[in-house]
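Justification of resources, computational component.

The compute hours requested in this renewal are based largely on the per-chain cost of generating structure records like the one below. Each record pairs the submitted sequence with a full structure-token output. That output is archived, and it is also reused by downstream analysis tasks.
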Amino acid sequence: MSATSAMRESRFGRGAALARLALRIGGRYVARSPRLLFASVERRGELRHDLALRSADEVAEELGSMKGVLMKLGQMASYIYEDMPLTFRAAMSRLQHRAPPMTGALASSVIVDELGDVPDRVFAEWDPVPIAAASIGQVHRAITRDGRAVAVKIQYPGIARSITSDLRNVGLLRRIVGAAFPGLDTRSLVDELGERLQEEVDYSREAENQEMFARFYDGHPVIRVPHVLSELSTPRVLTSELVSGAPFDELLRWDQHETDLAAETIYRFVFRSLYRLHAFNGDPHPGNYLFHRGGRVTFLDFGLTKRFTDDDLAPLVDAVRFIVFDKDYESFRAALERAGFLRAGAPVPTSTVVDRFGQFYGTVLQDAPMTITPAYASAIVRRFFDARGPLAPYSDVPRAYVIMQRINLGLYAVLGSLNATANWRRIAEEIWPFRNGPPSTPIGEAEAAWLSKQSEKVLKN
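The structure output for this chain reads:
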């Protein structure tokens, strides 16, 4: 089977596959309805659970085989939206790192096209079985000719055309997402996701982004980003250092102290990258992390990296300062208007603006430890997508910040899954450029020592 047929590149083929899936699942419910009607209460619950689980598994299998935009939506659904039925969340979570892979022969053909020979001759050792498969490509282990262990990400053939086909099915996509996320306005989510995915298919851009992060965090005590081997990377193949570690589902079985340390590292990575590097990976989901004891985390996948300017960040920094420290709510509102989140002169009281937008600052409003629960994270997501509140006609997510909002939602979802506890305010004060607070945790002390060494390097150079 060719890559074209395997991923149903055409708009008609991919749309028809989704329509068949919806009809099959809907028909199954109709066929089961007499049994549900006459079953006992206990048996009725069992039948519904079995039906939902089988339907969720089919959706996961279908989205996994189709890759691209559709699979990305399934990944996001698995970790962002807590209110999705548990059976569907469990099935969708498989898409984070265990999606159906392409065949060994097809993967080998990409290596031949991009690196000039079959994998067994390009590398000293090559594992034909992928260690991960995601929405754009899959990853293989290998040993280079000079003995380095590497991870080789290979792009699915035809994925760019598949993404284009999905975007042409935008109406169907919105209906599918609307069914999965009842009550949420998913128009901007689907539109932005499709546009950004088109950028991800250029692995040369991803290699540049990943190496920027790797250099910035070199020597960091708990944050690691694998370096790229540029000589073995092309627009469709990305080779980087191989790092072993525990996946997210294994981290969930560690004790709470270890999960809190991992959560702190993720939090520091998000905001230090944003405020100090002015860049971040716009696709923060659990499949992109590897965990090690003591709070050490390896961060993977930089295909969707957004870079921010000082002008982009200025109103956001002002908003934090006004709501957290100054309690100047009129200036907070003005900062949101400057950024474009709120229409200037909107006929709503400032108290409503603070109630609506202030929730996104809930983790840093109090100087005290706070546990981020799944319910709290889910409430943040619902508030973000609320299209019926009093501010809905006057608020928007400006283009410059769409990726940033995905980062925030992804961060809350991950920390909520971990039931993570920390004094997030103190950690944030270490990182906010207008505060530069003292270390507040052992990880903060280690990071401060690293920053001091980084400053010494800059002075020497």
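The CA atoms of residues 363 and 424 lie 6 Å apart. The chain has 20 helices and twelve strands.
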